[in-house]
Amino acid sequence: MTSCLWHASRDATVNFDTEGFINEDTFQVIIRESPDQNLQGLVLRRENALIKAKTSIKNTVMNTLINYCIDNFIKTSNLKINTRDELVNLHDIQKNLHEKLEKYYRRGYTSYEIFNEDQSVTICYRMTKSDLKKELESVTFEYK
Description:
Layout: E1 6-8, E2 20-23, E3 26-33, H1 42-76, H2 90-106, E4 109-115, E5 121-128, H3 132-137
């Protein structure tokens, strides 16, 4: 592996700060991983961080999508709750949403990968679909 990495895909719009919707059609998740502390050498540390980040993409993206849908539901419902943890059946909801939302993950792509000065890596994963925001905000689940 190379000690320098910059990879940008078909959309070169780089945005390191925004997680969630960057427009009505594009949902972005930022994955940041640091290298294991016991590793020595720039190349080895960067490779380690990149492997860790790539390994965690799916889990991070799915958790972010699930949390977005639950938080949106809480915000727009008449329930008298303020956080996800107040949902009695949170685990069941998360499992149900995972199944419903996996198709969005599969349509996504890595928009860019970049190494940071501290040898950590940042990966931007994007899902783009016409009216994606409306679609995600209409996802339903049973709650208690």
